[in-house]
Design goal:
Elements lengths: L1 H22 L2 E15 L5 E6 L10 E5 H5 L4 E2 L6 H4 L3 E5 L16 H17 L2 H4 L5 E7 L2 H11 L6 E5 L9 E7 L3 E9 L3 E2 L5 E2 L4 E8 L2 E9 L7 H25 L5 E6 L7 H7 L1 E2 L10 E2 L2 H6 L5 E3 L2 E3 L2 E5 L2 H4 L5 E7 L20 E2 L2 E2 L9 E9 L1
Parallel strand pairs: 1-6, 4-5, 13-14, 15-16
Antiparallel strand pairs: 1-23, 2-3, 2-5, 6-8, 7-8, 9-12, 10-11, 12-13, 14-19, 17-18, 20-23, 21-22
Helix pairs in contact: 4-6, 7-8
């Protein structure tokens, strides 16, 4: 009995010493967030002016401009499939599908008052995501369903109300709706080094190329540590989940190939692919393509870590359809975020869903509180909840 008591005392002393040692350590945190902001259009009907004298890879090849100014430029309106060979040498106008709705004369009666409220709503969410745990705003914010650089500038200006200076990285994609992905970042913490857009090549049943959102790749230094961020918005389930699955498999393969190529150069590379994947964590586009795991002790060099799968198994989700929650918004991490203890390591992921982001009444009670119900403005936020992950690093 005495030996047993002595062991208990020694163990207790060890725990106390260990706790005191940990109490002396200081840690720094970083929140990385993703948010599908749902159809964040400005109030101006937009079109793209395509300059067929440039390469499609040139950022100046396609410029989003007000439709009125485009139509008075004397250029022809291009209504066919985006065939770059046919467009070569021409300057044409390409209209967007939904821009007529998000207009003061459109079906949604979209105006500056509603738009500014949406900007305030979204920046409020930005400012509060992860703040309970870190006492700070996110260092990195991935977004999708933004129309153009105009709305990104307004989001950054909105963050100044919270005492934060953000900038953004964005490429105009060939998506027919005219919505893109982008990366916003705290300028005091992140320094971009390289940026690139990765295109997903799809074909429709007629054999023509079908355009979706590009994948944005940004390489940079987060608090001095090199990281790679991929921002995604994969093809939707329009036409049915299984029928549309090959499109998302194609998008997944583009990301996976790019991440694998970086790992071949640096096996300790810290990479994070985030976005609205339009698939759940257990879907083939995630599980089969990335070989994801959701337990830290299962992470090895030929796997990727997907903490969203654990939350999904617990019944959580980021959007609802027919009273069922899906977990389309995810973050997929390279092994170094789990296994490499130097620099930032993954701590936790969560869905940000405070009461004000949840519909409190009506047929969509319990769903994310969105800006519109059909064409009726409700003053909400988005049909998705944002997700965020917290990373920690010990201060030496």
């Amino acid at each position: 009995m005495k030996d047993f008591l002595m062991k208990i005392i020694i163990f207790s002393l060890f725990i106390n010493i260990f706790s005191e040692m940990n109490a002396q350590k200081s840690y720094k945190t970083a929140t990385i967030m993703f948010y599908n902001v749902e159809n964040l259009y400005d109030t101006i009907k937009s079109a793209d002016i395509i300059n067929g004298n440039l390469s499609p890879e040139d950022k100046r090849y396609q410029i989003s401009v007000p439709e009125d100014s485009a139509l008075t430029s004397g250029l022809e309106i291009y209504r066919g499939e985006l065939n770059f060979n046919k467009l070569k040498g021409k300057n044409v106008i390409r209209k967007h599908i939904l821009t007529d709705e998000f207009y003061y004369k459109g079906s949604k009666l979209w105006n500056s008052k509603k738009y500014n409220e949406k900007i305030r709503n979204i920046t409020k969410v930005f400012s509060e995501t992860g703040k309970t745990e870190t006492q700070s705003t996110p260092a990195i914010i991935g977004v999708c369903e933004i129309e153009n650089e105009h709305v990104l500038k307004d989001l950054c200006n909105g963050m100044k109300n919270y005492g934060k200076i953000y900038d953004f990285i964005h490429y105009n994609s060939f998506d027919a709706r005219g919505v893109d992905v982008a990366l916003l970042y705290d300028k005091t913490r992140f320094i971009p080094i390289n940026r690139k857009r990765l295109q997903v090549y799809l074909r429709n049943e007629a054999g023509y190329r079908e355009y979706t959102r590009d994948i944005l790749l940004v390489e940079g230094l987060l608090d001095g540590e090199k990281m790679y961020f991929f921002v995604n918005h994969w093809p939707s389930r329009l036409g049915g989940e299984q029928k549309s699955l090959p499109k998302r498999m194609a998008a997944a393969q583009v990301v996976k190939t790019a991440m694998d190529s970086i790992l071949k150069i640096n096996t300790s590379a810290k990479m994070l692919a985030m976005g609205d994947f339009n698939d759940d964590p257990n879907s083939p586009s995630i599980k089969k393509v990335f070989h994801t795991v959701f337990k830290k002790d299962q992470v090895k060099k030929d796997t990727y870590y997907n903490p969203a799968e654990y939350l999904f198994k617990k019944g959580m989700g980021t959007l609802a359809y027919k009273d069922t929650f899906n977990f389309f918004d995810q973050q997929i991490l390279s092994p170094a975020f789990v296994n490499n203890k130097d620099g930032y390591t993954f701590y936790k992921m969560n869905v940000f869903s405070p009461a004000y982001l949840v519909s409190q009444e009506g047929a969509k009670k319990g769903y994310p509180f969105r800006s519109f119900s059909g064409d009726n403005y409700t003053g909400g936020y988005s049909d998705h909840y944002p997700i965020y992950s917290i990373f920690v690093t010990e201060l030496k």
